[in-house]
Amino acid sequence: MGKAKKRSGKDVRHNPISRPPVQLPEDISQSIKIELPKNSLFAKLAGTDDEERRRAALTLVAACETREERREVLSLNGVEATVDKLDDAIDDVRLACVGALRNLISDEDEVYCDRLLAADGVGKTLTLFRKEMEVVTSTPVEKQTDEVIGVHMQTAEHCLLLLCSMCEVSQAAVEETTASNAPLLLTSNFESLLRLSPSLALAAAQFLLVISEDNDSVKAQFSADTLRGVVFGGSVDDATRVTLASTMVNVMDRGDIAVVVQPILDIIEKCLQTSVTAIASDVRAIEGDKAAVLRQMFGISHRTLELLANMLVATDIIVEDGEDGWEEGEDEEGGDESANVDEAVDDAVTEAIIARLLSSTLADSVLTLAVHTEERVSAIVQSVPTLDFVSELGEATVCKACDVMGNFGQSGVTSEAMAALLQRFRGELSTIVSRSFSSQQAMVLDASLRSLFGVYKSLIQVHRESSRPSDEFLKMLAGVVTTSDAPDGAREAACALLGSLASSFQEEGILRGTLTAFSTALPAAPLAVATEVLDALFDAFAEDDFNHLLGEAGSIPALEQYVPHFKTLIQQGRKAVDAELIARAKDAHLNLRRFIKYKKSHM
């Protein structure tokens, strides 16, 4: 208990940004008006008139752009009707149907994906991809122009991105796609894809990254030599290089990663420096399609930060300690945590990476992207209001940069250089937390709080006195905990951090403020927040030195009255929330009764 938990709900495997919903080409969107009822649209899509079918398919793309429209399409069995036309004889129909399916599951909603899987969406999408690529590759090189193969290339690219979306949402899609040997097909032909189209190669790289995450069964389908050749070659753009490098880290054994650590860090450092420079540039000076350039710029930033995070995890730099909760009479199992830290830090690869992180510009680049991206995004939108979509891309970049800063805090390294770096991270993360809370940026608040938890925890172990939180910061944390309209994930993270600080410092002022915040938040808190509040409360008041604070606040009688309500929350949440949260809540319910019994006998 006391550890910041991952966000509850479904596990989205990978979330690369710069993958916008499929839009109609401008000339088509202006000429087509969505006036038909959706059932009439699907009737035309199933018809025999080629032009009516084409226009219905193109209209369907636009008819799947909003959440309300997607729900209507779902209710009319539109997923199944659209999948059926993936083998249509008309090129535009196939392209539009793949695009519509991408839009349909853009909410990352399992319902849409389940319907797509039930309609053999994976199999039919892979079949379509292979057929489109056969057309492309069988066309003589001198005739491979956009006019001849353009629509086939676009359709193949959208097929790969549709598979990406499905695999992000559904483990069943991952398993079916892995069994199809699609990763082997793409890996062995990747250099050919690069020659044909950079955007198609990037889509293939994104798919390979998604399918390789936490998927040991797919490793045999990857050729390490092919991946290394592309990643460290000179003919690939940064976005594809970084994405494939992440895939390589996912599928390589730790010993093989050791061989490529330094070259990958070279790539990360170069791309992060490029990102910092690009984000600071004047958007008005961008030539050509500003929106496309900005999507690419933020996409590279996000992917590079993700690659760095993957490197830290894959090379055992992040020390995963156990959850040190309160339970009466319970002894922790699992051995001495310091021994685990020493084992990780003594590893030669880990030492090499840590040295590189501390001596290079990597950490500075991460810090810059975390702190200044929001400011630059505001400047971009003010300069060119039509580019307001970059707000979401910038928010995702800040969140990922915060994540990486939090990963540094879990490194287990106790050197003065690391302590100094963590002090910088703590100061900037605290600023980001305060700023995002006041501006109601839910994603950033959640990410920065969770990262700050790791940074503080490490600092407390290494430099206890210098890591003491200010009264102002503690009040801000208490504000997040007690604000009912703050996002649940952020409230959970704030609870965990506040409880950890109170537990670590064991000072009356901090404990009193923590108890007040928890007592205020608990009665009306949803299940996830209530569980985190109780876990943090048990940690903070595990010892008896400050039982008088519990007595002064009337906490034990209030907790006794709360027990039945918490049990009801658990019962109500059985079908509405994930099993992991229910298990944690049950543990908290058991510990709550033990905590009350123990404190009543010692006060």
TrEMBL record:
One of its GO terms (molecular function) is unfolded protein binding. Residues 357-601 form the SYO1-like TPR repeats domain. GO terms for biological process: protein import into nucleus; ribosomal large subunit biogenesis. It holds the Pfam family TPR_SYO1. Residues 1-24 are annotated as: Disordered. Belongs to the nuclear import and ribosome assembly adapter family. This is SYO1-like TPR repeats domain-containing protein.
